Amino acid sequence: MNNILIYGAGVSAQGAFKLLDKKGVSYTLFCDDMGEYPALESFDTILKSPGIPNSKPLILEAMQKGIEIIDEIELAYRYMPEQIKVVAITGTNGKTTTTMNMYNAFKALGYKVAYAGNIGFSYAELIATEEELDVIVLELSSFQLEHLDTFRANAAVLINLTPDHLDRYTSKEEYYGVKWNIFKNQQATDVAVVNIADQNILSSSELKALNVVTFAVSDEYKADLGYENHQLRIFDQKCSANIIEQFGRHNIENFLAIAGVLNHFGHTIKDILLAQEAFKCAEHRLEKFFSRGDVDFYNDSKATNVDSTIQAINSLNGLKDIYLVCGGKEKNLDCTDLIATIIEKNVVSVYLIGETANRLEKQLMEMGYPQEKTFNLGRLEVVLDVLKERLDFGKKSIVLLSPASSSYDQFKNFEDRGRVFKQLVQERFSGE
Predict the structure, then answer these.
(1) Distance CA 105, CA 273 (A)
(2) pLDDT higher at 87 or 210
(3) Shared-domain flag, residues 116 and 36
(4) Which residues are within 8 A (CB) of 369 and not within 5 positions of it... i.e. 6 or more apart?
(5) Of 252, 248, 250, the residue nearest 240 (C-alpha)
(6) Rg of the chain in Å (alpha carbons)
(7) How much is the pLDDT for 1?
(8) Which of 78-92, 244-258, 324-338, 350-364 has the lowest mean pLDDT?
(9) How many domains does the structure of the chain reveal?
(10) Coil, strand, or helix at residue 224?
């Protein structure tokens, strides 16, 4: 790499600038709002920001000319010191919780560890500033997995696969294929930790070529790591799950993935119990943050796809009546299963926001959900104004923000959406 064109100026690009400056590598920045892109013949590599799809004219021309296209993950890996081990994590849901708690586990066990990637901190910047590390834990989105070449994870985790980002990919199969890139270049000494209770993972022929450790909450799958009768099973050893159980079934899955990686690194049941004590739920993921009377408010802004919202409803069902706030940027996802869950679990009422609101309202009506329980209100502040008038604070209820879509139609990101929701709730329901 002698002269690099950096396409896009987000977090990943900022990290790339720092790393390339440190290494003395020449680069040029281009963003779409700068007008015509420069002649590509003068560059031998294009570093593409993850938010930029491959359908952009610059990328299509680069592909046609045979110019190398990489992402920031690949760039950082090429300059990473050899002693550092990489733990990479992907999946449609649960990436952030698993990444943060993988980091917590390694830290509790005495490693010099850091995290980066889709979690909001640039891998390239980390390599530019932190060289004395034992382990880097990477949360990787499908966008960050599109252009890998030499990248290799010593341990790679695939938590689950459900359709997502169909506004970017032509089919769910294309999306799944990109996710499998996390195992690219793995060797016999590396490990692939996968959830075989997920049929989209279990049915893949890709598993046969990997050194696989499997996990599943149900013992019916005969996984290497499982859970039954309030105990975690790590191969043929068992330990109590009383700490992790409080966070729900999906987080038991997330912890089994962590245990699989720790086992690969040579850790015992005693160490895995220590990791369990360090487990915490991520902000914006089924986060109970406020109560007034008998009404609890949950921020699940991290639910950026249909399956994640289904998990949230299932986790809270039976505790209290659910008032669901849902909707966001249009991603062309099939919402049939979500609406079936809303009906089956007797969600009290649904409050719709964002680009998907009209489509969701129409499909709710078509599937028989009562019109009088459906409120197409557009924005969060309007939803909370209406709820303030409708809620009975003496009745056991839950207000759940779980959008089933991304946030970019109205917010900077899901974190911003969650913060705004929490702030609006505090403003409208505190001190009365």
Answers:
(1) 10
(2) 87
(3) no
(4) 339, 342, 343, 350
(5) 252
(6) 22
(7) 66
(8) 244-258
(9) 3
(10) coil
63, 6 Cβ separation under 8 angstroms: no
Q: Are 155 and 201 members of one domain?
A: yes
- Phi, then psi, of 181 in degrees rounded to 5: -60, -15
Q: Is residue 414 part of a domain?
A: yes
Q: Is residue 282 within 8 Å of 97, Cβ to Cβ?
A: yes
Q: Which two structure tokens, joined as six digits, stand for 176?
A: 């799944």
Residue 92 included in any domain: yes
Q: Which of 118, 154, 251, 299 is catalytic?
A: 118
- CA-to-CA distance for 140 and 115, rounded, in angstroms? 11
Q: Give CA separation, 65 vs 41, 69, 344, in Å.
A: 8, 11, 53
Q: For residue 328, count other CB atoms closer than 10 A to its CB.
A: 25
- List the one residue out of 301, 219, 303 whose CA is nearest residue 256: 219
Q: Report how far residue 199's alpha carbon sits from residue 409's, in angstroms, rounded to the nearest whole number.
A: 32
154 plus 205 within the same structural domain = yes
Please tell me which residue in 48, 85, 93, 95 is annotated as part of the active site.
95
Residue ranges making up the domain that contains 340? 287-429
132-182 per-position pLDDT tens digit: 999 999 999 999 999 999 999 999 999 999 888 888 898 999 999 999 999
- Residue-level pLDDT at 146: 95
Q: Picking from 60-74, 271-285, 344-358, which range would have the lowest pLDDT averaged per residue?
A: 271-285
Beta bridge partners of 401: 299, 325
Q: Which of 48, 85, 147, 165 is catalytic?
A: 165
Q: 68: pLDDT confidence band, cut at 50, 70 and 90?
A: very high
Please tell me whether residues 135 and 270 are part of one structural domain: yes
Residue 309 C-alpha from the chain's centroid: 13
Same domain, 351 and 425: yes
* Residues 34 and 139 both lie in one domain: no
Amino acid at 194: V
Percent of the chain at pLDDT > 90 equals 76
313 closest CA partner among 336, 341, 285, 283? 341
Task: Answer yes or no: are the C-beta atoms of 93 and 299 closer than 8 Å.
Answer: no
Looking up residue 351, the CATH number of its domain turns out to be 3.90.190.20
Answer yes or no: 165 catalytic. yes
